[in-house]
Amino acid sequence: MSSNEPNRPHHSARRHFLGLAAAMSARLAAMGILASAMLPSSNAIAKGKKWWKHDGKPGGHGQSGGSPMCFLRGTSIMTPTGEVCIEDLQIGDRVETVRGEAMAVKWIGRHVYKRSGQAWNNGVMPVRVARHALDERTPHSDLYLSPGHALFIDGVLIRAKELVNGISIAPGLPQDRATIEYFHIVLDSHDVILAEGAPAETFLLQARNYEDFTNFAEFARLYPDAANTAMTPFAPIVSLSSGREHMKALLHLWTDVVYPRRAPAYNAYERIAARAGKRIG
């Protein structure tokens, strides 16, 4: 046996850490681009409210931490008969859930934004989850979500903005998009469906937050008794609160023999960032 054999786990951990560090550096660079290129002065014009300003506090309509949960136009949603673009779904159509049960669409909320400056507001710009960013098969195509839209990973819901690493998950739009058009699906309960093959949440109805959509009057007309409805979240909604916490998670990986297993959000971020890091190596 080679004398270097005992050191292999150390070298493997070091390579893993360096990959994560590279992904983290790219993430910070991406966030810097967001700060400089998507200034508040470049507001998007839309009917309805500027939902990126909601803070998610009691009395406001923010959800999942202050921004709505939406899919970009063109997103493929799995139904019992195959994938259908979200804009083509109708009330009453059935969509597959990760529980293996097909559920009827109760309503579809909609937003349309047009850029009024040189860049999009950072609350409007989608987060692009690149093809195979989560694993070898998921998503099967690029998935575009609003920043506050959560993915179901490791038994918890993690917002897209929390998973940004600047490589495989980063702010972005498909080419030749002059407008940003968002849609979201309301079911009888908060659930998880498959969008481009990735597990993503449906709309979490709480405290009249349907009023944040452009077509909210339709929902109010169809469901007049829903004003005080508050759905129970499908799973815990977890957060990585700051860049400092991201770096702490990376440092924990370096001394993994000392620290116990970390929270699911950290584990998911580390795994996805490491996967992104391998792509640039």
Can you tell me about this structure?
With 281 residues, the protein is α+β, with helices and mostly antiparallel strands. It is built from 4 helices and 16 strands. It has a 4-stranded antiparallel sheet, with no helix packed on it. Helix 1 packs antiparallel against helix 3 (243-254). The longest helix is centred in the first third of the chain and has 30 residues, at 8-37. The radius of gyration is 20 Å and the shape is globular. It starts with 7 loop residues before the first helix and ends with a helix.
* Low-pLDDT stretches: 1-9, 31-67, 253-261
Order of helices and strands: HEEEEEEEEEEEEEEEHEHH
Estimated helix fraction: 10-25%
Radius of gyration: 20 Å
Question: What integer is the average pLDDT?
Answer: 77
Gap between N and C termini = 29 Å
Based on CA inertia axes, which overall geometry fits?
globular
